[in-house]
Amino acid sequence: MLELLKTNLGTVLAVLGAACAAIFPGWGSAKGVGLVGQAAAGVVTEDPSKFGKVLILQILPGTQGLYGFLTAFLLMVQINIIGGDFAPVPLAQGMMYLGACMPMAVVGYFSAIAQAKAAASGVGIVAKRPDESGKAITFAAMVETYAVLALLISILAIFSIAGLSVR
Amino acid sequence: MAKLTVKRIEIVALLEDSKALVDYLQRRGVVELSDIGEQEQLHKLSTASTVSMFEKYLAAAQNALRILDRYVPVKQSFLASFNGRRQLTTEEAEIKTGNPDTVLKSCYEIADLSKKIDETAADIAREKARLDSLAPWLGLDIPMSVRSTAQTEVFIGTLPAAFSTGELLALFAAELPGAAEIDAEAISVAKDQSCIAVICHKEHAQRVHQALKDRGFVRAADTGHQLPEEAAAASEKEIARLAAGREAYTARIEALAAGREDIEFAVDGIVMRIDKYRCLERLALTDKTVALSGYIPEREAGKLARAVEERFTAAVSVSDLREDETPPVLLKNNAFAGAVESVTKMYSLPGKEDIDPNPVMAFFYYCFFGIMLSDAGYGLVMVIAALLAKKKFELEYSAKKTVNYVLFCGIATVFWGAMFGSWFGDIIQVVSKQFFGRPMGSIALWFEPVANPMTMLLYAFLFGIIHLFTGLGVRFYMLWRAGRKLAAVLDVVPVYLLVMGAAPLGANVVVAVPAIVLTAGKYLAAAGALGVVLTAGRSSKNIFGKLGGGLYGLYNTGAGYLGDILSYSRLLALGLCTGVIANVINLLGTIPGNKVVKAVLLTVVFLFGHTVNIAINIIGAYVHTNRLHYVEFFSKFYEGGGRAFTPLSANTKYFRYREETNNA
User: Is B278 a residue whose pLDDT tops 90?
Assistant: First the structure.
C-alpha cells in the first residue's frame, strides 16, 4: 500500500493540479458568463438588435475557463496521461506541477468574476449608448491581462518542470 | 492618406434660392454647416416647430414599419444585411416622392389596424375565459340566474369536493328525512369541485341551504339569463366573428405591406428633412439674401464652389481656418490602412496636434492579429468569407471597410499560421497518421510555438519592442515637425538606448546571449539610464528638482516599458490557446478505432469544434490586438479627442441616390 502510494503520489498531485486548473477558472467563468448573461438579457428584452453587441461582452469572462482547460490539457500531455506512454511522475515533480497550476487556478477564478462585473456594467453602456460599445469591451478586456499573465506563468512552469532533473 | 485638411467655406446667395441651395448641399454631403451667431441686421430662422412636426411623422412611419415587420416579415438572410442601400436615380426618386400624404395615411391606418388586432385578441381571450367558466355547467337545463320560483328555492353553485347526484340525494335524505321534494343534481363532478343544482320547496330552503353551507357551498358567480349551453354557443359565435374580424385586419395589413417601399422612402425623406431643417437654423438671412458658413474638406472645396456658382446666383469664398479653430476630423486612407479606422475611432479620433495613426498601425495591427489567431485554416476561412462578401454584395463605405478588415486580418493569420505550422490545428498530421498510417512531423515554415514556447515568448517581446519603438518614433516625428527638435531628441533617444541595452540582459535569463552583445547592452542601458536621469527633469527650475525629476523619470520609464513589453506576452498566450484547443478538437475526433466511424466523428467534431474555436478566438484576437494598440502603442504619441466631420448629408437608411458622393 505504502509502496503504491510512493510510486503514484507524484502523478496524483500532478493530476490534482490539472484538475484545479480546469475546475476553478471554469467555475469562475461559468459564474461570470452567467452574470453578464443576466444583464444582457435585460437589454435584449428592450432591444433585440443589440444581441450581437452584448454577446461579445458575455463571452469575455468565458476565456478564463478556456485558459484553465488549456493549462490542464498541456499538463496532462506533459505527464503523458494523454497520448503517450504513461510513466509515474516523481513526487518532487508532481508537487511542482501542482504548484505550477495554482496561478491559473486562483487568478483564473477571481479574474473571471471581476471581469464579469466590468462586462455587466459594460452592458449598461451598450443599452444607453450603443455607439460606445467598443469602450465597454475594452474596460472588460483590461481585467483579462491578469488571467493571461497567470496562464503564461502556469504554462511556462509546466514546460520547464519537465526538463528539471529532480528526484 | 491621413487627416484631410479642412477649409472654411462661406456662401452668400439669393434668399429665393436658399431652399434649393441647402437641398443641393445635402445631396452633395460635403459641407458641415456651422452656426452663424446672432448679428445685427441678420435674422435667423426658427424651425423647431417644423422639426417637431416631422419628428411626429417619422415616429408614425417607423411605427408602421415595425408593425409591418411583425405581421409581414421580410425574409432576409443575415448575410444579406451586408448589402448596401438600394440605389435610386434622381428621377426614380421624384416619381416615388408621389404623394407623401397617402403614405402617411396608410401609416396611420396600419397603426390603427394593429391596435384593433390587439383589442380583438383581448376580446377573444375574454370570450374564451367565459367558455371555460361555462364548461362545467353545460348540462344545466335552467339559466344560472334562477334563484327561485313561486314555490321553490333554487341553489346553483359549487361544492369543494366530489359529489355525485346519488351522494347528494343520500345526503339530503340523511339531513332532512322525509323531505321528498328535494331534487338535486350534480351537473359536473371533478376531484375537488362539484357543480350542483338543488331545487327544494320553500319551506325546506333554510335547512337545505344550511346543509349545503356546512359542506362549503358557494353560489355560482355567473348569473347569465341564458341556458349555459346557449350562452356557450353565443360565445363561440362571438369568437368566430372576432376571429374573422382579426383575419380581415391582418389581410388589410398584408395588403398595405405592398407599400412598404413607399413608407421606407418616406422615412428616408423625413429624416433628410429633419436634418435639413435643423441646419436651416444655422443660416443667417437678410431681406434678400441668405448667408451660410461651414467646414469643407479641401479637396472638395474647389469643385463645390464652382458647382454652386454655376447653379445659383451666389458668391462663394473658401479660406483657411483660424489658428484657434479646432477643425472637425475627416480621415482618408487607402484600403489597407482605412480598414483599421474603426479601431482608432473606437478609441478617439485624432486631436488637433495628432497625426492619423492608421497608416502606422495598420501593419502591426494585422500582424498581431495574425499571431494571436495563428491558424492558417482559420485565416483562410476569414479570407474566403471576405472575398465572397466582396463578390456577392454591393458593399457601401463602412461595410467595405469591415470586409477589408476581415480580409487583411485573415491574410495575416494565414501567414502566421503557415509560419507556425497550424492548419486547423494539426489536422494534416492527424489525417495522415490516422487514415494513411504515415506519421508526419511539423509542417511549420518557422517553428511551432507549442514546442518552443520560450522562443516564441522572446519573439513576442521583440515584436513588442519594435511596436513600442515605432510609436516612440512617431512621437519623435511629431515633436520634430512641431519645431521642438531638442525635446524630440531628449524624449526619445535615451529610451531607445535604455530599452535596447536592457533587452539582451533580460533575454540572457532565458537563452545564452553572446558576451559581446551583453557588454554592449550594459553600456547602452547605462547610457540610456543616464540620459533619462539627466533629461527627464529638465522642465524643473532648480537643480534638485531636475535631479529628482530625472530619477523619477528613470523609475517611470523603466517600470513603464517593462510592463509594456511584458504585455506582449499575450501574443504567445492567445496563439497557444487557439492552437492547443484546435489540436484537442482533432484529438477528440480520432478516439474511435474503426476507420469509418472515426472519419464520420472527425468530420462532425471538426466542423462544430473549429467553428466554435474560430468564433471565440477571433473575439479574443480582436480584443487583445485593440488593447495592445490602445494601451501600449497609443500611449507613446497619441492624444485623441478629435470631433468627427459630420456634413449635412442624405443620411438615409433604405435608399441611396446615385449622384450622392458618399465619402464622409
Answer: no
Chain A contacts of B569, Cβ < 8 Å? 148-149, 152
B275 in a structural domain: no
Which of A69, A73, A155 is the closest to B453 by Cβ? A155
Is A167 a domain residue? no
**Residue from the list A67, A137, A152 with its beta carbon closest to the beta carbon of B623:** A137
* B283, part of any domain: no
Mean pLDDT of B635-644: 88
> By the CB < 8 Å criterion, does A159 face chain B?
yes
Q: What is the pLDDT of residues B308-346, one digit of tens each?
A: 988 888 899 999 988 888 889 999 999 999 999 988 988
* A81 inside 8 A of chain B by CB: no
Edge-to-edge strand order for the sheet containing B152-159?
A: B183-189, B194-201, B152-159, B218-219
Q: Which of B573, B581, B587 sits opposite A151 (nearest CB)?
A: B573
Q: Does A83 touch chain B (CB under 8 A)?
A: yes
- Note whether residue B399 is domain-resident: yes
Whether residue B254 lies inside any domain: the answer is no
Which domain, by its residues, includes A124? 2-162
The secondary element (H helix, E strand) that includes residue B538 is: none
| CB within 8 Å of chain B, chain A residues 99-158 | 134-135, 137-138, 141-142, 144-145, 148-149, 151-152, 155-156
In this predicted model, what pLDDT tens digit does every residue of B499-546 receive, in sequence order?
999 999 888 877 888 899 999 999 999 999 999 988 888 888 888 888
Boundary (domain end) residue, out of B221, B251, B276: B221
Same-domain pairing of B342 and B215: no
Q: Structurally, how many domains does chain B consist of?
A: 2
- Give B204-263 as a 3 state SS string: HHHHHHHHHHHCCCEECCCCCCCCHHHHHHHHHHHHHHHHHHHHHHHHHHHHHHHHHHHH
Is A46 inside a domain boundary? yes
- B566 contacts chain A (CB < 8 A): yes
Name the domain count of chain A. Answer: 1
The upper half-sphere exposure of residue B15, i.e. CA atoms within 13 Å in the direction of its Cβ, equals 10
Residue B647: C-alpha distances to residues A85, A130, A146, B34, B533 (Å):
69, 22, 43, 10, 49
Is residue B657 over pLDDT 70? no
**Does any domain span residue A147?**
yes
Domain housing B559:
335-636
- Residues in A 3-42 with any Cβ partner in B closer than 8 A: none
Residue A70 sits in a domain whose CATH number is 1.20.120.610
Query: Residue B584: which of A87, A158, A76 has the closest Cα?
Result: A76
Residue B94 in this model has a pLDDT that exceeds 70 = no
Quote the pLDDT of residue B351.
87
Rounded to whole angstroms, how far apart are CA atoms B324 and B322? 6
- How large is the ipTM? 0.76
pTM of the model: 0.79
Q: Does B567 touch chain A (CB under 8 A)?
A: yes
Range A106-113 average pLDDT: 96
